[in-house]
């Protein structure tokens, strides 16, 4: 039988999760692995076995935001979701979906709104942004599709209402298979514009 972690180990994992969450909230780090490494370094921990899971860090981040950010976090999240919805409406022909921390409700004030778009080619999205009068930057996003496969997709960065948007452009058939979430390794939840509208209405 595997050995059960000691209470000290559990407490250490919790402390590391809370420190990683603080780092993400205060320094705008969106990478869970980088945040937990920084937390471990601060605690002088070299044993990877005690590092918290990403789900534990996200739970600690949500708690941190409730305790220390309160209304300001709610206002920031609402602004990010409104910007997401505005972008989704303008890019409706590309079947936009909201993903990531803005959808999950744990986005920090430094976070970019993450959208998935679906098109034959990224150039058609770029042309649409030009038609809309939105300046943009062409990027590339590496996306984990399953535990053994990471693919690179074109992307575009732009702003809506002062909020940074990062859109990853998948092929048309990509709407049928979501990448895995960096939080729990399950297929990423993708929200349609109507779902984002519902989130805004109930927040």
Molecular structure report:
Helix content is 46%, strand content 19%. With 203 residues, the protein is α+β, with helices and mostly antiparallel strands. Strand 3 (137-146) and strand 4 form a beta hairpin. The chain folds into two domains: 7-52; 72-202, Beta Polymerase, domain 2. Helix 1 runs parallel beside helix 3 (54-90) and helix 3 crosses helix 6 (193-202). It has a five-stranded mixed sheet with strand order 1-2-5-4-3. The longest helix has 37 residues, at 54-90. The protein contains six helices and five strands.
Task: Summarize the topology.
Layout: H1 7-27, H2 32-43, H3 54-90, E1 97-99, H4 101-104, E2 113-118, H5 122-131, E3 137-146, E4 149-160, E5 163-170, H6 193-202
Parallel strand pairs: 2-5
Antiparallel strand pairs: 1-2, 3-4, 4-5
- Output mean pLDDT: 91
How many domains is the backbone divided into? 2
CATH architecture of the largest domain: 2-Layer Sandwich
Question: Poorly predicted ranges (pLDDT <50, ≥5 residues)?
Answer: 3-7
The H-and-E topology, N to C, reads as HHHEHEHEEEH
N→C terminal distance: 45 Å
Assign the CATH superfamily of the largest domain: Beta Polymerase, domain 2
Q: What is the tally of beta strands?
A: 5
The CATH C-level name of the largest domain is Alpha Beta
DSSP helix fraction? 40-55%
Main beta sheet strand tally, sense and closure: 5 strands, mixed
What is the 3D shape? globular
Number of helices: 6
CATH topology of the largest domain: Beta Polymerase, domain 2
List keywords for this structure.
203 residues, Beta Polymerase, domain 2, 6 helices, 5 strands, 46% helix, disordered N terminus
């Amino acid at each position: 039988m595997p050995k059960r972690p000691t209470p000290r180990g559990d407490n250490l994992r919790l402390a590391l999760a809370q420190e990683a969450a603080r780092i993400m909230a205060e320094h705008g780090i969106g990478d869970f692995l980088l945040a937990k490494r920084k937390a471990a370094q601060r605690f002088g921990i070299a044993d990877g076995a005690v590092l918290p899971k990403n789900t534990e860090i996200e739970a600690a981040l949500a708690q941190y935001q409730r305790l220390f950010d309160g209304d300001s976090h709610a206002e920031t999240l609402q602004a990010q979701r409104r910007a997401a919805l505005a972008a989704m409406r303008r890019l409706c022909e590309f079947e936009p979906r909201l993903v990531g921390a803005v959808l999950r409700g744990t986005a920090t004030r430094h976070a970019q709104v993450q959208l998935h778009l679906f098109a034959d080619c990224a150039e058609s999205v770029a042309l649409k942004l030009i038609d809309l009068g939105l300046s943009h930057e062409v990027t590339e996003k590496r996306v984990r599709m399953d535990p053994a496969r990471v693919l690179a997709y074109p992307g575009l960065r732009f702003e809506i209402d002062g909020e940074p948007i990062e859109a990853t452009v998948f092929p048309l058939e990509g709407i049928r298979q979501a990448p895995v979430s960096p939080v729990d390794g399950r297929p990423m939840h993708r929200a349609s514009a109507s779902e984002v509208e519902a989130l805004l209405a109930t927040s």
